[in-house]
Amino acid sequence: MLKWIDVIRFATTGNPDPDKKIIKTNEEWQKLLMPEAFRVTRLKGTERAHSSEMCSIFEPGKYACVCCGTLLFDANEKFESGTGWPSFTQPVTENAIAYHKDVSYGMVRIEALCNTCDAHLGHVFQDGPQPSGLRYCMNAVALKKVESNESKATFGGGCFWCTEAVFTLLKGVTKVQSGYSGGKIANPTYREVCSGMTGHAEVIEVSYNADEISYADLLRIHLSTHNPTTPNRQGADVGTQYRSVIFYRNETEKKTAEEVIAEMQSVYQEPIVTEIAPLEYFYKAEDYHQGYYNNNQQQGYCQAVINPKLKKFRQLFKSKLKDNQEQDLSTNG
Ligand SMILES: [Zn+2]
Prior knowledge:
Layout: H1 4-13, H2 26-32, H3 35-42, E1 62-65, E2 71-74, E3 78-79, E4 87-88, E5 97-102, E6 109-114, E7 120-125, E8 135-138, E9 143-146, E10 150-157, H4 160-167, E11 173-181, H5 190-194, E12 201-209, H6 215-224, E13 233-234, E14 237-238, E15 244-248, H7 251-264, E16 275-278, E17 282-284, H8 292-295, H9 300-316, H10 323-332
Parallel strand pairs: 15-16
Antiparallel strand pairs: 1-2, 1-9, 3-4, 4-8, 5-6, 6-7, 7-8, 10-12, 10-15, 11-12, 11-17, 13-14
Helix pairs in contact: 4-9, 6-7
């Protein structure tokens, strides 16, 4: 989760690289855009406050750059700021937006641009709601609403080789990445995390389609496929990096996490010790950790630890599995 200190750092020392870069001349953009969108995005204009209905729309979905279509914001992060411009607390990814110091009109402000195509979007202020405290004050004309129910969830339940292998099998899950969250240093290595000194947990970032699987169901499966009652431990793996944790992105997720934990407590005799914490950063783990189980099925740990877990998981959550995984179940017996 980006905070004001990150925005200032990006604006002073440089922005993170975008996934791709799109460069066109103003003449080319003018042909593609409506006049008002061209004036705002390419000539750094500002639309009149309260000029768009987008301020009062809060339906689920995503908001993309009107120029290049890159996804910038999720409707979950949109809030009523009362300013007359659509306002968000957080972009969809840390590299979606570029930040520049803007000293026009005798003020020092932070300009927000599409990091992919450099479209001017609006400004960012530090008076937004917690936990990010940010207010992305956007021109509605610089954005277009797109239907998308793709969301991300981040949690840890011990060794990420195991948790990644489990969640990859679920219907509605489009991508699972292994990484580190909840620690004190930036860009930690596996070695550093394993030392237990950085405070990071081994976590997975699950991309999912909320039409096909709900956040609550992901958490139910999470709490059923690891032991959430052993502090800083999963089986033989001991250390804070193996703690049971749910990192939430917004207040709705936090509330859902609390409810699901209360609900799942009936399944366990010992108290559930799963930590619920705001997501600050997800650092993707080294490449050799990604898809570890699928790439190393013959390895001892996979056979001894992950195979039995997956077998149990397949039986327990048969109806939630991707179609080809249900077939796997029948052929494997
Ligand atoms: Zn763009």
